[in-house]
Specification:
Elements: E1 2-12, E2 17-26, E3 29-34, E4 43-46, E5 51-54, E6 56-61, H1 74-83, E7 86-91, H2 102-115, E8 119-124, H3 138-144, E9 148-149, H4 159-171, E10 175-178, H5 183-186, E11 191-192, H6 195-200, E12 204-205, H7 208-224, E13 227-230, H8 236-248, E14 251-256, H9 258-262, H10 284-296, E15 301-302, H11 311-314, H12 331-340, H13 346-361, E16 376-386, E17 405-415, E18 418-422
Bound molecules: (4S)-2,6-dioxohexahydropyrimidine-4-carboxylic acid (DOR) and zinc ion.
């Protein structure tokens, strides 16, 4: 089947392309990018006024399968992904059982293939059971298809274990993704520690609970000559430490999520449990620092940290509510706000949401190369829409953005040349 995308703005920072042109997909591959392609045998999609970009890649998704399919399944997570413009997601290992064995990694890959919607790249646990004590079988897991190692959801508290994880991963050419949290400092905290937590009388999580392990992991990467990726950066302190480390040539990459630059702890006054996540929403100063870090390249990636929870976990007192929000279907629109604010150029947005996550994970995609697999997202950058969680593809509804007026949406998501989502 041939598909001809006509007259869109093709943005591919890796190939330094930003021009109005047509793009022809044939046999699952991108075969031509030119002005005025004619092909009578192709299905035509009018992409006038749209952006045609390499498929978005989310390197931080919780798909909840196996074990918590009532929150999300691999299939519903993938449906949400393509509706949000993502052609691929990397899924975190805090399932039940934890993805610390070949059989779980293979199960995820098999379920994703059966669903046949988006590409799914399993991230395996760095330690057995994500308990932070004994390393998992990196070689075996990598061979099974794991693209990275992380105990996300929990920190690796023991510095020696983290050091061995990073060295062991390096020997397999693999990456460790670090959930940076000093649990002795975050303890039973419910929100960012500061003026607002004091006003609300909620126990706070200080920014140093994040800054300290970020500094530690960077020190380990520098000392051992390995690399590390810092998940969900939320503080100005972490940004400063990462920026300085990059200047020294340390191999550190970092991500943040749209909620951390779209909301601050001020929002917590509503006591909406959909504003509870880990790390927590931070101060307005932290939000400003994150935007600067996205602008200057300190933060490489925008990831969703899509964390579905059911009403059982969220419709409870703030203290007892689970951490996390869904993000696959709102991430692009919230990130497009940064383009409108002048924080990111359109090409920067494509870097943060496609090219950089592909490079960090070492997976395909991130570019519209001729002959490459056709993983493509078509965006209407100006389309107005209102977030309505009731019609989301995700099985869960825990978004603080319900009712928000958005501008910009994925209208066509193509994976391997096949249309997996089409707006309207
Ligand atoms: O808010 C969060 N939710 N942070 C995490 O680190 C884990 C995630 C989850 O799995 O729900
Ligand atoms: Zn995490």
């Amino acid at each position: 089947m041939k598909l001809l995308l006509k007259g869109g703005r093709i943005i591919d920072p890796l190939r330094k392309i930003d021009k109005i042109a047509d793009l022809l997909v044939d046999g699952g591959k991108v075969v031509r990018i030119e002005t005025n392609i004619e092909d009578p045998g192709a299905d035509i999609y009018d992409a006038g006024g749209m952006w045609i970009i390499p498929g978005l890649i989310d390197m931080h998704t919780h798909l909840r399968e196996p074990g918590y399919e009532y929150k999300e399944s691999i299939r519903t997570g993938c449906e949400a992904a393509v509706a949000g413009g993502f052609t691929a997601v990397a899924c975190m290992p805090n399932t039940n059982p934890v993805n610390d064995t070949r059989s779980v990694t293979e199960y995820i890959i098999r379920q994703a293939a059966l669903a046949g919607i988006a590409r799914v790249y399993p991230v395996a646990a760095a330690t057995r059971g994500s308990e932070g004590r004994v390393l998992s079988e990196f070689g075996d897991l990598k061979e099974a298809g794991a693209v990275a190692f992380s105990d996300d959801g929990k920190p690796v508290a023991d510095s020696a274990v983290m050091r061995y994880a990073m060295e062991y991963a390096a020997s397999f050419g693999a990456l460790v993704i670090s959930h940076c949290e000093d649990a002795t400092l975050s303890a039973d905290g419910l929100m960012n520690e500061g003026r607002i937590s004091t006003e609300l009388g909620l126990k706070g999580i200080p920014s140093i609970a994040e800054d300290i392990p970020v500094a530690r992991d960077i020190a380990i990467a520098e000392y051992t000559g390995t690399s590390v990726h810092i998940a969900h950066v939320s503080t100005a302190g972490a940004v400063r430490i990462i920026r300085e480390a990059k200047k020294r040539g340390v191999r550190v990459t970092a991500e943040t999520a749209p909620h951390y630059f779209s909301l601050s702890d001020e929002a917590l006054r509503e006591f909406d449990t959909n504003l509870k996540m880990n790390p927590p929403l931070r101060s307005t100063e932290d939000v400003a620092a994150l935007k600067e870090a996205l602008r200057d390249g300190t933060i490489d990636v925008i990831a969703t940290d899509h964390a579905p929870h059911s009403s059982i976990e969220k419709d409870v007192e703030f203290e007892y509510a689970a951490n996390g929000i869904i993000g696959l279907e709102t991430s692009l629109a919230l990130s497009l706000n940064l383009v409108r604010e002048g924080v990111l150029s359109p090409a920067d947005l494509v870097r943060k949401m496609s090219s950089n996550p592909a490079a960090v994970l070492g997976v395909r995609g991130g570019t519209l190369g001729i002959g490459a697999e056709a993983d493509i997202t078509v965006i209407d950058p100006n389309r107005p829409w209102t977030v309505d969680v009731r019609i989301f593809r995700s099985k869960s509804r825990n978004s603080p953005f319900h009712g928000w007026k958005m501008e910009g949406k994925a209208v066509l998501t193509i994976v391997g040349g096949a249309i997996k989502y089409r707006e309207g």
